[in-house]
């Protein structure tokens, strides 16, 4: 099997994911180069991560990638994407693709004009647990899903999961919401555990999205504490006509209408043993709801999801199906901006509208 060759533009925390994935699954992925314009910074980065660093887009193309990954800081993504569109370079871009409604409309217009080959790295639906939840829904265990209460992901990530699970695509909705602030003790960050007992004020967003036809999403998130905390965890409840998901518990009716309750069981290799740690699967009873595409690779859940995006991007560039289209990422961000509007106008109804990319939505 031919290796998937990709290059990365960027040198931040998110760009490092794509380096680790290439090193963890060398039989599948090949990182051709990393673009860092500052030569001194690039040299230090190359020595630290043992990767090929280039300083120009021309050099990046000359390294022979199938596509590039755009993983630069927020606020600069839209303009860089427009440049890649014009050059005809296939790109997998990190979220969000734009920061304002003007950015979103400009990206959509230019992507159509240039025939851009672009997908977006909205990875959460490919994380093991989220994938298992969604597969349970696809199997019909819950029947017709009518509402979701999600307190696990911020903004456009949460919106992406809501749209996928409710199956509402670009359907208009009315949003009510409010942003609160509550004190919380810091316990964990990107650098590891914290023990100094520092207390800070953390926003907590609460919103209701009422869709036509009665489907409803209850959105709740405390950013940044909920992503990195030992005392603030996720909460997810999805209800359908024949069952519900309540975090790791799934309750459903059999064909004979007998109620069943089962728990999702995570299978990680190497736990309490001498085999190297790796994630393998998530099971419900005797069936698999998720199995990793990277057996024995030492990747965390987010890296597994990003790796799956890379697999999908390679298929898309080769003429296959889209993995996460620009249209869906634009819709996610559009609704995220509407959420922000709702928070600035507490509990005032905010009406969303049909957008020009609606007929191209995948989820």
At CATH level 2, the architecture of the largest domain is: 2-Layer Sandwich
What is the succession of H and E elements? Answer: EHEHEHEHEHEHEHEEEEEEEEEEEHHE
Q: Largest sheet at a glance? A: 11 strands, mixed
Q: Roughly what percent helix?
A: 25-40%
How much of the sequence lies in strands comes to 25-35%
Query: How are the strands ordered across the major sheet?
Result: 18-17-16-15-14-13-7-12-11-8-19
User: Any idea of the CATH class of the largest domain?
Assistant: Alpha Beta
By DSSP (H or I, 4+ residues per run), the number of helices equals 9
Shape: globular
Q: What is the fold-level CATH name, i.e. the topology of the largest domain?
A: Dihydrodipicolinate Reductase, domain 2
- Helix-and-strand structural type: alpha/beta
Distance between the termini: 30 Å
Q: Got a strand count?
A: 19
Q: Please state the average pLDDT score.
A: 97
Number of domains: 2
Low-confidence stretches: none
CA-based gyration radius = 21 Å
């Amino acid at each position: 099997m031919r290796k998937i060759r990709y290059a990365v533009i960027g040198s931040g925390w998110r760009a490092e994911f794509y380096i680790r994935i290439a090193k963890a699954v060398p039989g599948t992925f090949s990182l051709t180069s990393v673009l860092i314009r500052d030569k001194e910074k690039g040299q230090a980065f190359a020595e630290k991560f043992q990767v090929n660093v280039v300083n120009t887009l021309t050099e990046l193309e000359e390294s022979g990638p199938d596509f590039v990954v755009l993983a630069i800081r927020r606020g600069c993504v839209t303009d860089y994407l427009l440049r890649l569109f014009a050059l005809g370079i296939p790109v997998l871009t990190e979220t969000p693709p734009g920061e304002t409604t003007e950015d979103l409309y400009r990206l959509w217009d230019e992507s159509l004009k240039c025939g851009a080959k672009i997908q977006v790295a909205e990875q959460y639906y490919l994380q093991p647990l989220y994938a298992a939840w969604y597969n349970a829904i696809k199997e019909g265990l819950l029947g017709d899903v009518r509402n979701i209460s999600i307190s696990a992901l911020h903004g456009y990530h949460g919106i992406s999961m809501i749209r996928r699970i409710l199956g509402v695509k670009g359907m208009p909705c009315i949003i009510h919401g409010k942003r609160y602030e509550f004190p919380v003790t810091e316990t964990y960050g990107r650098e590891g555990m914290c023990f100094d007992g520092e207390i800070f004020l953390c926003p907590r967003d609460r919103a209701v999205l009422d869709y036509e036809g009665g489907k409803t999403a209850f959105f709740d998130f405390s950013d940044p504490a909920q992503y990195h905390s030992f005392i603030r965890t996720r909460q997810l409840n999805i209800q359908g006509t024949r069952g519900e998901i309540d975090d790791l518990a799934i309750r459903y009716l059999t064909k004979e209408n007998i109620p069943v309750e089962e728990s999702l069981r995570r299978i990680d290799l190497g736990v309490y043993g001498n085999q190297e740690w790796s994630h393998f699967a998530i099971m419900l009873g005797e069936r698999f709801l998720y199995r990793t595409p990277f057996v024995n690779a030492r990747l965390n859940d987010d890296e597994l999801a990003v790796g799956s995006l890379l697999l999908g991007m390679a298929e898309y560039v080769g003429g296959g199906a889209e993995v996460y289209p620009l249209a869906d990422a634009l819709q996610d961000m559009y609704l995220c901006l509407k959420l922000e509007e709702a928070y600035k106008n507490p509990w005032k109804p905010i009406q969303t509208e049909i957008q020009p990319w609606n007929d191209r939505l995948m989820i």
